[in-house]
Amino acid sequence: MITGSDGQSRPAGSPKKPLISIKNVGLSYGNFQALTDVSVDFYQGELVGLVGDNGAGKTTLIRIISGIIPPTSGEVYFDGERIIKFHPKKAIDLGLECIQQAIGLCDNLSVGRNYFLGREPVRRILGLPFLDKKKIREASAKVVHDFGLRDSVDVDDEIALLSGGEKQTFKIARAVTFRNRVIIMDEPTNHLSVRERTRVNELAVQLKQQGLLVIYITHDIFQIHRIADRIVILENGRKVTDVPRDAMSAEALEGIIRDGSRTSTKEPKVS
Amino acid sequence: MRAAIAHLVRRHPEGGTVTLVVLISLTFAIVTGGSWLSTGNLQSLSQLTAVLAIMAFGEAIVIATGQIDISVGSVSGIGALTFLGLAPVVGSGFGLVAALLFGVLIGGINGVFVAFLGIPSLLVTLGTLFLFQGIGYAVTSGFSFAASNVVRKQFIYNGFGGGTVAGVNTGVIWALTILVVLQLAVFEMPVGNRLLAIGGDAASSFSRGVNVTRIKFGVFVVSGVLAALSGALDAAFIGYADGSFGAGMELSAIAAAVLGGCHLAGGRISLIGTLLGAFILRGIQSFLIILGVQPQWYILVVGLIVVLAGLADRTLTRLVLKR
Amino acid sequence: MKRFFTHLWLWLSLCLPFAGAVFAQDDHYRFVMVSHVGPNDPNMIWLTTSMKTFNEKYPGVKTEYLSTNEYSLQNFIAILNQAIATHPDGIAVPILNNEALQPILDKAVESGIPVVAFNIPDARPVGERIKYLTYVGGDEYQTGLKMGEFVIDQANAGKVPKPVKIMCANHDAAHQGLKARVRGMTDAMKKIGVPVDELIIGSDPAKARSIMQSYLSTHKDVNYLYSLGTISCPWVYSVADQMGLKPKLSDKGVTIVTMDDSPNSLEGIKDGKILATHNQGFWFQGYLPMEILYYYKRMGIYPLNDVLTGPVIINPDNVDQYIKSVKSIIGEDAYKKQLTW
Amino acid sequence: MRKLLKRPDLGIIIGCLFIFALFTLYDPAQWFNWGTVSNIGEYTAILGLLAIGQSFVVLIREIDLSVGSVYGIVGIAFVGLENNNVSDVLAFVLAMLLALLVGLVNAALVIRGKLSSMIVTLGGLFFYRGLIYIITHGAVTGVPQAVRQNWFAQLLGGHSLRIQNGFLLLLILGFLCAVTLHETRFGNHLLALGGDPASAESRGVPLGKVRTIAFALCSLFAGLSAIVTLTNDPETSVSLGTGMELEAIAAVVVGGTLLTGGRGTMLGTILGSFFLTAVRSEIIALGAPPSWYVSFVGIALLTLVTINTLLLKRLRISG
Predict the structure, then answer these.
(1) Which residue of chain C is at minimal alpha-carbon distance from B38?
(2) Would you call C100 and B238 a contact, using CB atoms and an 8 Å cutoff?
(3) N or C: which end of chain D has fewer CB within 10 A?
(4) What is the arithmetic mean of pLDDT over A55-83?
């Protein structure tokens, strides 16, 4: 039904036209300005590190891109087309997957049902859409196996039986295996062991090499500096830096973040 | 052993209820010397169960999304009054359609407040409970709500609770039909997957592209229609309705759902369990009547059973979710 | 009224000579009374007490009293159906609604269970009506009508004020019997052109009082308060008293009339707080159906006419006598306990 | 001004001012009438006491559906004890102990049994009402004249300066509860538990203890409300308190307390009780059809809750 793939070829280098273009976006909760006049372009086949301190507006920006909240001002373009209606369903249909920190899995559903939530495969019987349970089971079992989760995990069991790390891995696996165009990772390495962390970072690079746009959110500048093509720094809801990785050292970037946060103490924070 | 039980319970949340039904049925049958299982009693019991179960199915669907609908008692009253009030005038077919439309309307009102305005469902449905109870009282002071002999012969009237097929009230057939339809919709279709997802974690399901607002709205409409249908079926069975129709049924419907293994927090329901829960509630009443105990004991026993069922279910769930 | 006494005495004279011991010991019947008079209705105690008396007389006969918790036709029918399914040897039941009960009761009669109607009859003529043996009880519409006529008589005699507007305090919005009383009162008052309002007060005392106060504070022309059940009678009085409406019986202020023969109503009349109440013979309504069922099972006989146990109007002239008889039946102690004045 | 706007009870304050203005303009003779005022005051006291108890439970994200039945059973116990020649003070103490017991049972089932409070108290709603039916057999009971006139009955049910003592009691207890809620450590714990149980626990709030106290207070207030009712007008019936749980919850929520816990005021709860009582009273007084006021209560509830929710949304947005 929804594959996310549009069948276009994906060149490895950055094409001229941005895949996601954010123009002068602002978002305010009443008189609190979470984002102010942020403009940034994301291109196909690049790995962008979105960095900033807590409350800088990273998650807010991601929520706008993945359709969870509409911006109060400014415009968002996807593949040259302006987004009018903001809804996660639309973002997913466009081939945009977001791995969020706290949300994304329903504890009461089975592993398989979580895997396909929102885009369940169906078999039509008398024209009625019935869940294709065989496909759900097989596809999700493959993912569980491919991403090295415990063998004892039965895809018909509730996802609540998985540990925190396993859940995170599963979310990443889900985002990756659907053929998408954009993968957004919001602090993907939280709750992960060192070995798992390395795997996630390798994965991000692999995805980029496959021609996807990867937006990687973190507050760990040193980690992202190793793998990203470009670093975007947000501070107090504003974009303060947008440089290719090679243009600045990790230490210099860290300095920017540190200085920025000093002026932010007066403002209320949004998590 | 424990793992095996855990596995069984995990796949079949109604397992506890089924066991309880078997135990209760056996006990009741033995204690009453078999008369609890007499044809007459089972006929009456099945009709009562069907009416309560249809209402409780709607309640279960609402509970699945983590909401609650306590207006169902009033809605079933309005359904009954509309059906019997209009049947003599425009025929039972149109009467029934009108009753169901009222169900849609009231369910829609609940849905708008809950899904679009984001007001807690307990309060919204508390408001509509009062609102339509008052309307029920008001209309019954001036009009008559009885099925005339002409109406009683109509096919639709008999097909919707007024008649029997092979000794079984047609309402029972509707209850089973609805059970099958809902069972398929909730557990075999995408919409059911999303419904349960909302009950489990609304924010997560929204982030996966589930239209939370529409589904929340939808469950209240379904609940409204089923409550109105349940009222119409019982009204057709009795042939008369008054302002007290459906009063207090909301609590029985919630109790049936809880007994059936539905979690009030949402995300985990069993429709078969709900049917059995309704059967247990009604079965206890008939058991007490056969024993010649005053029915006043009934609500006391129901109170105890609701809490005990909650405790049993809690223990089972804990067992299930142990890693 | 005459008919009532004829039948009543006939039946009592028939019952009493046969002491239970003559043949009761070896008869094992089970009679069920299915009723809408539940625990929210103080009259329930009359029915259960009289059935207990019956049981003392015929120890071999088992009687059961089943009732809904509050007025609900829906629950009543559920209980009735389940009671019939137990195949009792006889059923006593109020005909809450002809249409609703006809199919159920006719089927029960066909299957060999004799039925006696009590408290509410099927108003249609014999032959058309439900095939019960006989009816024992009063008539709700007549109850309201006769009370209205009594009020008009007393007012014409100058003992109480002329009615200007009447409020009927209804504690159960769905109770068809109460609604019939209101219709009776309305029809009686139509003759002299006095309007009648029905106010739904609910059955919680605090809320009921609040609702009545609100109503009375603006409907100042209301000068008769008809409490449709014993339960609300003291509430009505205390509200009227607190509002300074002079409910004490005189030719001024408001006047209260009520229903049923509970200690509250009776003592209220004695103290001059209430003009009159009705009795519809609840003790008989519990006892006689059992006797009739017993005689029918035992000898195949039953009264061909209805046994009317009411309405009877109780007023200051006959209240003392009446209190004595009530105390003799429910006992001095229970009488005092039920008194809430 | 900003502080006022942030009050959770803003909606009900506006609501009360609105009906006050409306009734003053529309029907001043009825509205400014001692009879009306004392009528509204009397029922506000009863509903308000129930609702204050309910507030504690709602503030910690729980609900107590059993208060109507508890109100009934405690009231019947109180009158029953007095009838059996137990002195009224002792009867009061014993009846309140019964209420306390009910509250502790509720709390134990919620905390130890890990059950949702809705299930526990729904069970209680049925159970205690069933108990009332069985114990009383439907008999109406009252207390002897002598008992009604003595100091204790007068203390709770009488009048001071033409004002019902029950109403004064509501104001005093409402004030004390408000102080407890906003000025004491317990109140802080309570609000923290309602706002975010996990964070509260991590900060060392004894969750079990706070929950237990909240449920106990709820049942105790329900019992007290029943006793205030019965000392004023000592007649019990099996229907004592039926449906009161819904009215109490309505009053609490109309008063601006969030069902999701952690936010609410006692003033709001008392005003909520007043609002529902006053609106119903005026609707009846204005001559609405006899049974329609039931509907109007529903409409009032829906309207105010909608206003509250929308206000809160604005507030959330403005940080």
Answers:
(1) C85
(2) yes
(3) N
(4) 87
